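Key idea: predict the complex, not the pieces.
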Amino acid sequence: MTSWTRKDLVSLRELSSAEIYLILDTARAFKEVLNRPIKKVPSLRGKTVVNLFVEPSTRTRISFELAAKRLSADVVSMESESSSFKKGETLKDTALNLQAMNVDYIILRHSAAGAAQFLSERLKASIINAGDGAHEHPTQGLLDLFTIRERKGNIQGLKVIICGDILFSRVARSNIWALTKSGAEVTLVGPKTLVPEDFRGLGVKIEYDLDKVLPAADVVMLLRIQHERQRQVMFPSVGEYISLFGLTKNRFQKCKSDVLIMHPGPINRGVEVDSELADGLNSVILEQVTNGIAIRMAVLYLLGGGKGPQELVS
Amino acid sequence: MTSWTRKDLVSLRELSSAEIYLILDTARAFKEVLNRPIKKVPSLRGKTVVNLFVEPSTRTRISFELAAKRLSADVVSMESESSSFKKGETLKDTALNLQAMNVDYIILRHSAAGAAQFLSERLKASIINAGDGAHEHPTQGLLDLFTIRERKGNIQGLKVIICGDILFSRVARSNIWALTKSGAEVTLVGPKTLVPEDFRGLGVKIEYDLDKVLPAADVVMLLRIQHERQRQVMFPSVGEYISLFGLTKNRFQKCKSDVLIMHPGPINRGVEVDSELADGLNSVILEQVTNGIAIRMAVLYLLGGGKGPQELVS
Amino acid sequence: MTSWTRKDLVSLRELSSAEIYLILDTARAFKEVLNRPIKKVPSLRGKTVVNLFVEPSTRTRISFELAAKRLSADVVSMESESSSFKKGETLKDTALNLQAMNVDYIILRHSAAGAAQFLSERLKASIINAGDGAHEHPTQGLLDLFTIRERKGNIQGLKVIICGDILFSRVARSNIWALTKSGAEVTLVGPKTLVPEDFRGLGVKIEYDLDKVLPAADVVMLLRIQHERQRQVMFPSVGEYISLFGLTKNRFQKCKSDVLIMHPGPINRGVEVDSELADGLNSVILEQVTNGIAIRMAVLYLLGGGKGPQELVS
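Result:
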């Protein structure tokens, strides 16, 4: 049985398959806790978690905050518009200060790829990467893998499409690592400008025609159009995007009847996915959200020295 | 004995008098808790409360937050300037996401009338309306009724003036329901443009001359001048407002000696009410604030399956 | 043995030396708690602490928030951009409202000198001054004194330099009171425009040439250049400031080998102090941050009726 030895969760690239499945199995035990009337366990009582969100994200912050509180940790939040950042303090100094306050975890969202790695090498506190630029968003990759496994039973051999802006997507990168390490057959789909050829080196297929690969897919993961991070030049009009890469009702006719529709949210209804499909039987978009809490509880618990699922069940 | 069966608190219009008094009696038991050195009970341990304030209101948010924490719930706040809203997510999607995080309560403040009703019909979580446009603000109506009852003993037959901007006031609407269901005789007073004739259909009187009705009043409830929500055209100058509808010292001379002066806050000292009167013996403005916590504890407790005051006392 | 009798902590000027050392001794006991795996004690369970930061300061807010949470208090935060302030409510009304919510502590950061004193005279809640204009920042003075005592054993006779913008610094003022009451020999150093002659009346020396006093110093406390609060006219260029008052490597050569380098943070690396020196063996800058939590726990505990260190140890 694998046991957890890392101080930090920076990327899925570096994790072994055994480590990934230790997190997933632990999350399964926590998911059961979330269905109880009292959704709380004392695992992290007296521990302090800081949400250091230099790039704002209410959803991810709240998901981590709820995960930490349900483990009985104390949580404080420090958002991007906070005064110390305005005063020009460096990320390292901010983090060292938090550590000097005997903080146990720093959950970092940052616009620069490598920010979480940078802190992980310099601090004793556990660093959890909650998204660093276009690099990784490991808990998102884990919750997506968890959701697929829960619905499909097994990942090995599954055909998974990741569709959209691959180039700028940390969600895509973390999913690529999680899925390929688990034996899925991943195909990246999107506009040529946003799906670079060299991703083939990661062990995935590339396809620019969604309709060609859609019929065989077991899972279609649609990425959010991130206007914020995209340069104007690379992106077609929204109408053109929908006609080529949107999961419309028409296009959905070609899918397997048990295809899973996934999206990291927040969705642009009618753009990446038809509004009715997003609410339909094939959609697991809200399950992803539910599973996100369980995954984050598992990560916090394991980084804090938790032994694993058998400790929780007994 | 009435017991609580509703999932949500959206409006006072829909509540029976028995339901209203079940909340008030439960709040009385919680008020006693607030006077203890340890102002905390374990009723909502392991439950999660989200303050979803799409329209900001620090006071009301803090009142609900304290009420929830004193019931041992976990509380997270999501304010209007939050990123998901900026990203154009709809209210329904935001709420469904929160529910997917196994949230038990959503306390909603929103600029659109009907927003709380909309969510209550679509979510399993309990929705508490913390103010929706000019529609209702039920916990304010309840805390005002609680305050009057505590001071006057009985509501039946009391003459209550609600003075100011009735047209745009959710506080007025919730108070009208609470007071008329309890047998008070309510008179609305204010500029003609802000006190529409058709409010008579709600079982209240309308009067445009404050001085005419003031001498007989048992309670004078002054509404805040809400520059934010008012259209310029309807409103007189501040000086003119004071001369016609401000509770000045001069005007106070005409009142009964035991008249109650009420205001939902924050007050504009010297506008709706003279500053000394606001701090004087007839003012119960700060008691309203204290009672607001007890009322909100009672509502959270009852929506969460609490049985009522006798359970708390025993 | 001194016992604590004050309701508030407004300034160090008014404290006796015995009171100051009661806080320091209590903080020493709490510092031990912070090194435990479970950094939490139940002292303030059921008590409510409000961070009322009319002038924003993420660091100080988080330090107080962690201190309060580790004492098991409930904490709510009310920041400067909050709506009630926007609505023009006065500080007094905001505070009275918080008190009406049965709040036990108000931690106030405000741009106006005297704001904490103003509230302390009008409220039953305990007021802790977290910085009021250029007046005082008592917990900063206490944590600095704590840090020096921990490293040097004794304050009596120590030569302490406080260098920088004395005129606008509440940190300087609180340190002057803490240090002179403890028998240290304090020398203020900085540009003539920022170190007024009349500070001599506080029992300190004044010197405009840092290099002259540096060799004899046991402690060098560097103040942050506060662009925000400074008027342009009084301040030299940053380059000129560094050349005259920055603790450069060159200048450090002249110091005693065991000199303590202190800074209240956030530091401007390469301005007030050389970046390597800030991270070096003589720097206690991060220890100040750690000790800040212990001091704030001690203050909250004593104002809440705590007996002192012997109660904590037993």
